[in-house]
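Same chain as my last thread, 388 residues:
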Amino acid sequence: MRTILYLFISLLLIFSIITPVFAQEENQSLELAADAKSAMLMEQDTGKIIFEKNANEKLPPASMVKIMTLLIVMEEIDKGNLKKNEMVRISENASSMGGSQVFLEAGEEMSVEDLIKSVAIASGNDASVALAERISGSEQNFVNRMNEKAIELQLKNTQFKNATGLPAKGQYSTAHDMAIIAKALLQYDDITTYTSIYEDYLRKGKKNEFWLVNTNKLVRFYPGVDGLKTGYTSEAKYCLTATAKKNDMRMITVVMGADTVKKRNHATSEMLDYAFNHYETEQLFDKGEVIKTVPLLKAEKEHIQIVTEHNVRTIYKKEKPYENIKTYIEIDQDLSLPLKKGEQVGVLTVKANNQELSKTPLIVASDIKEASFITLLKRTLGNMSKAR
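reply #2:
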């Protein structure tokens, strides 16, 4: 009996050691991003991690910090708090930023759209601070907002100290966290209209015209790459969070700590090559597609539309497509009014053969206000008349 017990315990120990190895076997067998300190390969819609290397190692992110800066800018535009054609007056503080810059002058006025281009294409530190000051009043207040957003995205290994990525003690992130921020930014479809531009001009036709040229050369030299953000400092070395789309499948890559631009671009390219050569996706629902219409008696409109927050897809190895795909919808039972556009009210779960593939937030398609007393009275009387 004792011998059988020892054997059972030994088997448990063996399985406890072997099981995680099996789970990571595919990832570990890939020889990608050899010249990077840290790397990540993720599919955009599903969030599936295809490859990672030291993905949770805290490293200086350099100008990849601007992905979070741009995320907050796009959020403010989406909320209507910021307009692309709004003119922003440049402060002395913003104009004094060193490093990568577009040479904004104190007192100059520039549109929000041109400032976004300056950040997305030329990595302008001055443009980043100008946008931060416009949104939050000061760069420090904006940085507080950045760190709050990091908490909201459940990033455990990221801390921001500025809106630019200039060297700062205590500023760090990881390949994993940068991929998550990029995933959030890419929910705003028009961001790639800026990050995909290879060259453009500020103040075109004027004496102080300035040539913008993309710091991410893969936008020009790798088919499908349309973003996202480079980074370099002597401490961080060469970094790049990139994204590419092919056959409706979008990939996100992160490379941190490469010794040269060539090594950084090579690591990015080989991860993208691997993803597009070996994986496919299947679209189940479009972003914003109505999943369910829910009656809500106390709402201004009696029926509210529940939609997907982003595209719902499955991703699979080309030789192993999923079968028996099923979707499950869960809507919160106690919805309290008012509800803001984009507020999560449920979850859409995708499963295949009882294996969970993804969870997608379900949100309200528009602001939902509480019904007035008169509206509720009319609705009640109408329902009473129908009951007769």
